[in-house]
Amino acid sequence: MRILHTSDWHLGRSFHRVGLLDAQRAFLDHLVSTVREREVDAVLVAGDVFDRAVPPLAAVEVYDDVLHRLAELGVPAVMISGNHDSARRLGVGAGLMGRAGIHLRTDPAGCAEPVLLADAHGPVACYGLPYLEPALVRAEFGVERAGHPEVLGAAMDRVRADLAGRPDGTRAVVLAHAFVTGAAPSDSERDLTVGGVDSVPAAVFDGVHYAALGHLHGSQTISERVRYSGSPLAYSFSEAAHRKSMWLVDLDADGDVTAERIACPVPRPLTRLRGRIEDLLTDEAHEEAAGHWVEAVLTDPARPHEPMARLTARFPHLVSLVFAPDREPDDPLPSYAQRLRGRSDQQIAEDFVGHVRPGTTASDAERALIGDAFDAVRAEAARGEGAR
């Protein structure tokens, strides 16, 4: 059986306020073309179909369109809800959609009820485990501790029990949305630590032939049978080095796995530039970045004048600006907070003037004005205390 494993579409998400719906639509066109051209037998979507619980209408329309196209091809799809999705909303109409070959698995109670697929070698039981928030599903799975390892372990125990009752030779695939120990996260995934320890061991998926994982945005191979597809698009600059892809997985008659990465379209490369503003504006080595989405990390000791406007003139797709000034060699303090420690309000205010106005410190007149302002605030506070 040939399976296309994808996840973390995050339909409706933007990139630093730049809309990505056209890029997401192009990815789904690519997915449908891959299904047709590579003769895919089933599509697995391992959660985070949408970016938020109540997605914008345009994102829902894109989702609706790709479901119709897969149904027209006669290729079944199995989809689970992720931690960004509203399980209840995503699961609306699941029964009717299932008749068209679109199988939505959003109810934790149904994790041991597989979608039964088949090929020339026999049955394939495909189990969909939606994102399991420990505090919400603890009672359902009867675990004492509300942690991700406990609830996912209990769900997999149900899967293995169901599989044990099926005909010999039944191959098993599971979809899950979780953080597996040893995998590498990025900055654009929502933290799962609320509700207990966030990571689960890969051994929790023992007993199935393939685990199609979602949640982490980098494509990763935990083992030959446990993989993350990653997100089809980059959603943060921490993903600049990612090669966005899907897994094309073949299960043979014995359940052995071979997998091929299918690259996804790249709407625009990502580049992080670091240095002083004059260097970024003049260095010919940065010429290629003019067509990229750019994050500029400025290391100037003082904040430059109108940095966004000046940098955008060279890098029209600049979307993020970060200030990380170089420290003086005799400045051992690593943070601004530490530099404030032990200083008076007056001193902090005077330092701020120097921080936002490059190359100058507060003048005597400005110091006096700052002192008068603090005196007025203290006097007003004192009057308020007296009135009470």
From TrEMBL:
An annotated Gene Ontology molecular function: exonuclease activity
Keyword Transmembrane helix (UniProt): no
Keyword Magnesium among UniProt keywords: no
Ranges where the Nuclease SbcCD subunit D C-terminal domain occurs: 267-353
Oligomeric form and interacting partners: Heterodimer of SbcC and SbcD.
Similarity-based family: Belongs to the SbcD family.
Protein name: Nuclease SbcCD subunit D
Organism this protein belongs to: Streptomyces polyrhachis
Gene name linked to the record: sbcD
